[in-house]
Amino acid sequence: MTNDSLGRRRRQQAMAPIGHKLAFGVSLLISCCCVAKAVVTFSLDGQWTAVNTNKSIKISATVPGGIYTDLKRSGVIGEPYYGFNDVRYAWVGYENWTFSRRIDVPDALLNQERLSLVAHGIDTVCRVKLNGVVLFDADNMYVRYIADVKDILHRKGNIIRVSCESPVLYALRKHEEQVRSSYPVYPLCPPSVQNGQCHV
């Protein structure tokens, strides 16, 4: 087996478990230093709250999932793939969305030697905070992010926030940085019949 095919195989194996998630999935993983003890998990999948940039939209969101599905389920938008709804709902991509949830954890978890928050498939440019403390900034959906939360997590009233930047505005900012470096990436915009976003 060549080094190239071995590397490709490892990448495929690493990416396979998270490829099906639309927006993000987050889990608390509690692990111990002792090899004999099993890893204990506390999943954060389920109901969250999603809020847009100016807080004019506040809806229930499902994790793992996607904002379009959440908006449709809440009656804010209709079927995104019907007619010209891709144009009608283009505003969704220009919004920053913040997902939050309050969590209580059992004492058995807090008594573990190590507490780590592990995030899979965060799509894409998002800042993750627990109780106001920045854990990490995500910028790649295919990377697993791990943060130590031993000194941050409490028994009750924990607030986790995942603040995601507009992918359209993020791409535009990165495009402008690239143009300033005198090396633009083409095409700048897709053909108009595709109704796509420029620079993404």
UniProtKB/TrEMBL annotation:
This protein's UniProt keywords: Glycosidase, Hydrolase, Signal
Signal sequence, renumbered to the chain: 1-38
Residues of the Beta-mannosidase-like galactose-binding domain: 48-184
Pfam families, alphabetized: Glyco_hydro_2_N2
Annotated SUPFAM superfamilies: Galactose-binding domain-like
GO biological process: glycoprotein catabolic process
Transmembrane segments: none
An MF annotation (GO) of this entry: beta-mannosidase activity
InterPro entries assigned to the protein according to its UniProt record, in alphabetical order: Beta-mannosidase-like_N2, Beta-mannosidase_GH2, Galactose-bd-like_sf
Protein name: Beta-mannosidase
Organism of provenance: Rhipicephalus zambeziensis
